[in-house]
Description:
Order of helices and strands: HHHHEEEHHHHEEEEHHHEEEH
CATH architecture: 3-Layer(aba) Sandwich
Helix content: 40-55%
CATH class: Alpha Beta
Distance between the termini: 29 Å
Structural class: alpha+beta
Strand content: 15-25%
CATH superfamily: DD-peptidase/beta-lactamase superfamily
Amino acid sequence: MVYGHVADKAVLLRAAECGTEGSCKTSLNELHKTARILITVTLLSCSLASFAGQPGDPRLLKNAADLTLQAQVENIVRGQGLWRNVQSGELALMLVITTNPDHPRVAELNGHQMMYAASLPKIAILFGAAVALDRGQLKMTDTLHDDMVSMIRYSCNDCATRVLELVGREELIELLQSPEYDFYDAAGEGGLWVGKNYDPSPAYHRDPLHNLSHGATAFQVARFYYRLQTGTLVSPAIADLMVEALSEPGIRHKFVKGLQRIAGLTILRKSGTWENFHSDSALVRSGDNTYIIVGLANNPQGDQWLTRLAEPLNNLVRDYSRRLRLAQN
Length: 329
């Protein structure tokens, strides 16, 4: 199973530090915190069970366009009065139905357009730390664990910068461009990029195509979630840690706000905001359906756009998947 053992690791880590004779004390608050993490990850392991152990090939997304789904996504965007913003390049959107990860269904609008994405590329730092842990280049500590969770769940800038320093700034850029992962294509449209600390210091390495310090394309963000879902990023134990960080969103706006009326959802999510730039991304389990949604906007109203789009797109996945199942029966 791809998800589940993070809390157990936290307990073992503390036990190792205290020794077998209990030479240090664990506070009641720490035990409660560990219990909450265990419950959260266990619930995710159960509700996202269909994510695990799937042999989905990440290359499938490049050839998975669904024309019927595309037309329906376009209708939703037009219905929200946002088609002009798509045409102007102010809005990029990606929807991937991954209920069957071997046969994803993709609809996208400006999906390969790279935009400034503020804090959303912190998922790249999470990915870099996960790979470094998997390769034995980093050692897990309580501080690193807390920073990895907080930089995603609460978008902590100081936490993200500390993790980035551990991963290595140029090392992360090389990893994002490596053939094994290919999250940034310097010969194509770009992709995920982190070339600046999340602090007031200047950028140390802007992306070569668009001169962005923190950038993304909706397509490459969707690929990140797809590879996490299909277990093709890192080992299952380290993937559990990534799931923990992405779960229980601590900032409830944009997609999370738009989906709040729908009961029973499980959401793995990271967003970003800076001035007119608004971004959000999520891997969502809704009933029997699983989907990835990514939105990037460059407009003062961009956060409201993403909020308005979330529920109609969720309902589209529900209805579209129901029709597919009926057609197959």
